[in-house]
Amino acid sequence: LRLAEGYVQVKPLGPVSIKGLSGPVEVFEVAGAGPARTRLQSAAARGLTRFVGRDPELETLRHALEKARAGHGQVVALVGEPGVGKSRLFWEFTRSHRTQGWLILESGSVSYGKASAYLPVIDLLKAYFQIETRDEARKVREKVTGKLLTLDRALEPALPAFEALLDVAVKDAEWQALDPDHRRQRTLDAVKRLLLRESQVQPLILVFEDLHWIDAETEALLYGLMEALPTARLLLLVNYRPEYRHGWGSKTYYTQLRIDPLPPENADELLRALLGDDPGFEPLKKLLIERTEGNPFFLEESVRTLVETQILIGERGAYRLAKAPQRTQVPATVQAVLAARIDRLPTQEKTLLQTAAVIGKDVPFSLLHLIADLPEEALRRGLGHLQAAEFLYETTLFPELEYTFKHALTHEVAYQSLLHERRRALHTRIVEAIEGVYPDRLAEQVDRLAHHAFRGEIWEKAVAYLRQAGAKAAARSAHREAVACFEQALEALAHLPESRGTLEQAIDLRFDLRSSLHILGELGRILEYLRQAETLAESLGDQRRLGRVFSHMTQYFWLTGDNTRGIRSGQRALEIAMATGDLALQAATNFHLGELYDALGDHRRAAEVLRSNVEALDQESLPEPLRRSALPIHSRAWLALSLAELGEFAEGVVPAEEAVRLAEAADRPFDLVTAYFGVGYLHLRRGDLDRAIPILERILALIQAGNFSTWFGTIESSLGYAYALSGRMGDALPLLERAMARERGYYRRRLAYLSEAYLREGRFEEAIRLAQQFFQRSHDRKERGYEAWALRLLGEIASHRDPPEVEKAEDHYHQALALAAELGMRPLVAQIHLELGGLYRRTGERAKAREHLTIASGLFREMEMRFWLERSEAELKALG
C-alpha cells in the first residue's frame, strides 16, 4: 500500500485475522483514484531528497496559515528562478501536520498556458468535483450538480458557468442569451463564490504554481479572490519567476518570499544527503556548489550526471568516487547538464523522451502510444527506464495512465534537442491522434489541437482550430487570449494558397480581432486590421463584408476623434446597407453616425438619426436576434445624451429609462453600463446630483467588475465632475486625474471636467492649460459643441482671475454663447448667461448682470434645472 500511496484512495476496514498468520493484518478497501497529479506528488512515494535550508520560509507560511484559520485570509507568493525549490517548499508545507483539517486544492500553469483561458482553474475544478478523464458529459454534470447543491443550494444559478468551463453543453437558455462579457463575469463570480463558500465549511488552501505562464482570466480570478480574502478562511499560495508582474503587492495580507539558491552550508547538507558522508567528497562538493550556485535542482541533476558517467558509483546517500572529476565534467548550466544527460540515453529512449516532449509537459500514455512507433511492451520498458533516470514520473494510473516531466526545464531541453522537421512531423501526428482518440470531445481539446496544428504546420487545420480556440476564449471574455489565437490563425492562413475562401476567412478573422481589441481598449491596432479587411473585400467584390468594414471604421473614427473620415465611412456603409437590404448593417451604422453627430455638436441631427433608429429597431417584422441585440439599448442611451445637450430632459428620460429596462432584461453588463450612463449623464447635465452620483457609482462598480477598459475614462471623469459640482473635491480630483492618465487620444469632456475642477481649487495655470488643450482639440476635430464648452470654460477662468480679465472673459463668453445658441445647446446657453451675470455683478455692471441672470433663471426654470436655478437666484439675490 505504501508503494501505491497517492495513486489510490483507501478506506480502512480494521485488523482482520488471516489463516496461517500469527496476528491480525490491517485491511483496506480500495475506494478510488488518488489525488497524485504533480511530479512531486508522484515522486514522494519513491522518496524525495532531503529538504534543507527553508526554516524561515516555513515559519512565514505557518504564520499565514494561523491568520487564515482565524478568518483573516492571506496570500503568500514565492518568487525565484527555475530549480530553486518553490514547488518543493509548498509540497513540504501542505503535507505537514499543520494543514490537517484543511482542504487543499492545487493547480499549475504550463508554458503554452497563456493562450488557454482558465486552464489552471479547470484543473482545480476537476480535482474539486473529482472529475476523471473518462467521464462523459452526463457524468460530469451529475458530479458538479451533486457537489454544488450539497454545499449550498444558493449556488444553483452558477451551474451553467461550471458546465461551460468543463466543456459540458449548457442547456440553460438564460446563459445562452448572455453576451461574452457577462458570461465572463458570471464565470469568475461562480468560481469565487464556490471557493469562498467552501472555505466556510472547511478552511481552504489554494495553490497556483508558475504564474509566469498564467492566462489573463485565471489572473482575473486571483485578483477577485484577493479582494475577498480579508474575511475568508482561505490561504492562497502562488509562485512565479522574477519576471512576472502583478498589482497586489500593496495588500496588507500579501507576503512575498524571495526564494534564493541555498547558502553554502545548506547546499553542503543537501549534497551530504545525496552523496554520503565520505570526507573525500569535500573537493567535489566545493566544485558542485561553485558551479550550481546552490540551485537544488541543478545540484541533483549534476550528481545524477556524475552517476551516469560512472564518476560516482553505489547507491544514493552512499556513493563512492570511482575517479576524480575534471572541472570540465561538471557543466556550467543546468540546461547543459540536462542536454548532456539526454544525449547519453540509448537511441530508442532518447527518441521516446523527445517524442513525449512534443506532446507537452503532461503526457497521456494513450497519446504517446499512438505516435511513438513502438510496441506496447517496448514503450512501457522505455518509460520505465526514463522514470528510473528521473526524466519522467507517473502522475495518474487510472482512468488513464499519464506521465509528467520532472521539471519544466527538462521538458524544454528535451523539446529543443529535436530538429525542426522531426518536431513538425510529431506535432502533425499528435493532431491526427487526438482527432482519433477524442472524436466526440474535440471542443474540449481545441486549445491543444490549435497548438499542435500550428507547430505541425498543418495550416488549414491550424486556421480552423485557432479560430475556434479564439472564439472560445472570446466567449469567456478572455480577449487577450482570443487576440493571440486570431493573430496566430492569420499567420497560419498566410501559408495557404490564396482562394476566395481563404480571403473571406482573412477578412472575418480581422473582424474577430477588431471585436476583442475594441473591448481591450487597444484602438491603435484596430485601424490596420480594418484597412487590410477593406482591401481584401474590395478585391473580392464582397459588398456585405465591405459594408461591415466601413461600419466598424465609423465607430473607430468616432473613438479616435477623426470625425470627417468617420462620417465618410458611415455614409459608404449606409449606401451598401441600403443597396443590399442589410438591416443589421443599416442599424449599426446609423447608431455610429448618431455618436459622430453628437460628438460634432450637431445634437439635433444626432437625435433625429437615433430616434429613427429606435423606431426602426422596434418593428415586429425585424429578425429576433437584431431586436434582442445591443443596438436598441445603445441607440436609446445615446438619444438620451443628445436630448440632454438640447435641454430636452423630459423627452430624454423616456428612451433612457427604456434602455435601462431592456438592458436589465437582457442582463448583459456592457449594455447595462451604456444604459445606466444614458440616465446618469442626463441627470448630471441637468444638475440633479442626488440621482446622478449613485448611478455613476454603480456604473463604476460594473466596469471594474467586468474590466470594460473602454469605459473607464468616461465614467471616472463623469463621476469626478459630479463630485466636484457637489463640493467633494477630495473625491473628485483623484478620479478626474486617473481618467486623464488612462486616455491617450480620446479626451473630449475629460479635459473640461478636470480643468473646471482645478479652477475650483484655485489652480489657474493648470486649469487654463487644460482648457486651451480642450479648445484646440475640439476646434481641430470640428467638434463645435465641445468648442463652445471650451470657450465657456476659458471665459470662466478669465473671469475668476484677480483682478478679472474682463475683456478676455467677455470675448470667450460671447463666442461660446453664439455657438451654443446656433447648436441649440440650451443648458450651455443658460450656464453662459449665469457666468456672464456673475462676472458683471462682481465688476459692478448691475444692469448687464441683471439682464443675463434673468435670462439664465428663465431657461433653468423652463428646463427644470433646479441645481443651476438655485445658483442663478443666489446671484440675483446678491445683486440686490
Give an overview of the whole structure.
- The chain is of the alpha/beta class.
- Among the domains are: 1-34, no CATH class; 54-258, P-loop containing nucleotide triphosphate hydrolases (Rossmann fold); 264-340, no CATH class; 346-418, Winged helix-like DNA-binding domain superfamily/Winged helix DNA-binding domain (Arc Repressor Mutant, subunit A); 441-541, Serine Threonine Protein Phosphatase 5, Tetratricopeptide repeat (Alpha Horseshoe).
- 65% of the residues lie in helices and 8% in strands.
- The chain is built from 41 helices and 12 strands.
- The protein has a 5-stranded parallel beta sheet, with helices on both faces. It has a 3-stranded antiparallel beta sheet with strand order 10-12-11.
- A hairpin with a 5-residue loop joins strand 11 and strand 12 (402-405).
- The longest helix is centred in the N-terminal third of the chain and has 22 residues, at 180-201.
- The chain is elongated and about 115 Å long.
- What structural class should be given to the helix and strand makeup? alpha/beta
Tell me the major beta sheet: 5 strands, parallel
Strand content: 5-15%
What are the low-pLDDT stretches, counting only 5+ consecutive residues below 50? none
Overall morphology:
elongated
Which architecture of the domain at 54-258 does the CATH hierarchy give at level 2? 3-Layer(aba) Sandwich
Radius of gyration from CA coordinates: 34 Å
- Count of strand segments: 12
Stated plainly, the CATH topology of the domain at 54-258 is called: Rossmann fold
Q: Given this structure, which CATH class of the domain at 54-258 is correct?
A: Alpha Beta
Helix content: 55-70%
Write the CATH homologous superfamily of the domain at 54-258: P-loop containing nucleotide triphosphate hydrolases
DSSP summary: helix tally: 41
Strand order of the main beta sheet, please? Answer: 4-5-6-3-7
Mean pLDDT: 89
Distance between the termini: 98 Å
